[in-house]
Amino acid sequence: MLYLFILAILMNVFTYMFYSREVQFGEERYEKTTKKLRDSINLVSAKLADADYFSLEHNENAQNYFDNSASGGKVILFEKLIPVVTEKLLDFNANPKGNPYTGQDQIGPNKFIINKVKILNHRWIIADYSNGELWGEVLLKYFVDNNDNITFEVNQTWLYQK
């Protein structure tokens, strides 16, 4: 009986030590993982802020350009302007000869169309275009007049080689 009692006490001590260390190990692992994830989120947030630095949404000076209320003009909300300008530029993709604001003539059977648009500020747009085989980028100027008409002008274009 005495041996059985001593064996039971030893089993309880070892079991207690095992489970207490397991909980401590789990908590440490959870804290390390949480710290890594927070660091990763902070890093991604910083990279996103850097990537959006040249963006109309985050450029207050460019946003103020559209506020003409001091001179008796009207205010153009940049939140509404961005999708309108993007849509208007992408509407030119329906042209049978391709989008004229790619700065490229049609090469072969496929026409050049704009795929992605980024409005940098109150004057500049950068866009990616392709014809399915060749890819390029274009830097555009855009203008919004008092009648809310939007016009575009190709500044520079670049077509990458295959």
Automatic annotation (TrEMBL):
It comes from the Bacteria. This is Hydrolase.
